[in-house]
Amino acid sequence: MIRKAILLAALLIAVTIVATKTYGQEPSGDAATSKVDLLSRADTFKIITDAKAKVFPAVVFIKPIVEKMEGGEKKAVQVSGSGVLISADGEVVTNFHVIDKAVRIRCTLFDGRHMDATLVGSDKETDLALLKLQRKEGETFPFATIGDSDALTEGDFVMAMGAPWGLNRSVSIGIVSCAKRYVAGSSEYNLFIQTDASLNPGNSGGPLVNTKGEVVGINSMGSMSGGGDLGFSIPSATVKDIVGQLRSGGKVARSWTGIWLQPIQDFDQDMYFDADKGVIISGCDPDSPGLKAGLKNGDRILSIDGTDVTAMTDVDLPSVRTCLSGLAADKTATVVVDRGGKSETVTLTPRIKGKVEGEELDCPRWNMTLKTINQFADPDLYFVRHEGVFIFGTKYPGNAAASGLDKNDIITSIDGTEIKTLDETKAAYEAAVNATPKKTRIVVGIIRGGLDREVVLDFAREYKAD
């Protein structure tokens, strides 16, 4: 409460300065000061209320039903999040993680209307999704205007809107702590707007709003620390780009090169290169286009297909990665690098990145769930086996756990039949279940810790679902 009072006081001071300039001269005397103070207070709260009024009716409370399989069985769980309407015909922007694996998406609007929504498209790598409300013919909705996140600077006042803790909708106020924040491990392609406006579970997908009443970000992450609130929002510049692609194709198509990048001034690694342009290659994935092209650790990329690139700090990395991912798949591109002080031109042929997460399968009689190996989601397993299926989760108590099978075991065979795909696994599972009660024991070949093993799976006992 004290922090918010300070924020409002600061905003009042800012408006006072604007007001005195607007009226042509500095006030003199107690009467003049009092007049400006009253006017400033009125203007301050008018700015806040006007901005809120433009966007608040467009805030959507989202309650998806999602299927989770991490615990070794398929469970339908209700979660909650937020979104914002961006068109009169019912387009809603939210986070990917709000609707991930949703089988039903329920929405409540500002005026009490409630309806289901369909998924138009989603992008895990930027944590964005586009929904469409299932409206009646001719039905329209209030919607918000997407503003310019590039115009934000540190100290600008913003409001975070959404439904924290499933409490329908609320507004919190704060300032932009950092207009362009790189958060390692969160996304290869995103910078974030860092704000101290309070963000809690459920705020995800809601809008970050400037004092003009424009959406300048989509709230994505929040954490509480001893020093205050930390909130991170996806900039509206990214939202505009991704939503446009989702609207037209339902997904974002990216090319993959497998090149790992490092800034010239890498404070985290305490490494500083003697250069003022380009970006350093810190490595290439195995069997990647970058490795096949002959790119090496320590090469400094100067241009990509004619476009000069520079990453002096980690803040510049997402734009270079976006440049690489935007190259045409299966077509050659030229990459100019500095190698040992000499300029060299390398021919690179990216490939389509494809899925960034494997498909899942529930095996209730075995009390475990399975998932296909994906090089982006499961790089450690992919290193062992490029194609295959692994145990995503085991239920306890359950047949798989009791037989000694464990999470991340890679399945190589089931009762002597080689397993490489999820379809082959599903067929083997159905055959085993159909053979009960005559046969309730099978031999499962697995790879665990890089070693081949065989485990006897006994599924004679039938465990009831929780």
Write the layout of secondary structure elements.
Blueprint: H1 2-22, H2 29-55, E1 59-68, E2 75-78, E3 81-85, E4 91-94, H3 96-99, E5 102-108, E6 114-123, E7 128-133, E8 157-162, E9 170-181, E10 192-195, E11 207-210, E12 215-225, E13 228-235, H4 236-249, E14 255-256, E15 259-262, E16 265-266, E17 271-272, E18 279-284, H5 289-292, E19 300-304, E20 307-308, H6 317-325, E21 333-339, E22 342-348, E23 351-352, E24 360-363, E25 368-372, H7 379-384, E26 389-394, H8 399-403, E27 410-414, E28 417-418, H9 422-434, E29 441-448, E30 451-458
Antiparallel strand pairs: 1-2, 1-3, 1-5, 3-4, 4-7, 5-6, 6-7, 8-9, 8-11, 9-10, 10-13, 11-12, 12-13, 14-23, 15-18, 16-17, 18-19, 19-20, 19-21, 21-22, 24-25, 25-26, 26-27, 27-28, 27-29, 29-30
Radius of gyration from CA coordinates: 27 Å
Q: Specify the number of helices.
A: 9
Per DSSP E runs of 2 or more residues, the count of β-strands stands at: 30
Shape: flat
Helix content: 10-25%
Strand content is: 35-45%
CATH class of the largest domain: Mainly Beta
Q: What name does CATH use for the topology of the largest domain?
A: Thrombin, subunit H
Q: Major beta sheet, specifics?
A: 7 strands, antiparallel
Q: What is the architecture of the largest domain at the second tier of CATH?
A: Beta Barrel
Count of the domains: 4
> Which ranges are low-confidence, i.e. pLDDT below 50, for 5 or more consecutive residues?
12-28
Instruction: State the distance separating the first and last CA atoms.
Output: 43 Å
Helix-strand category:
alpha+beta
Mean of residue pLDDT? 89
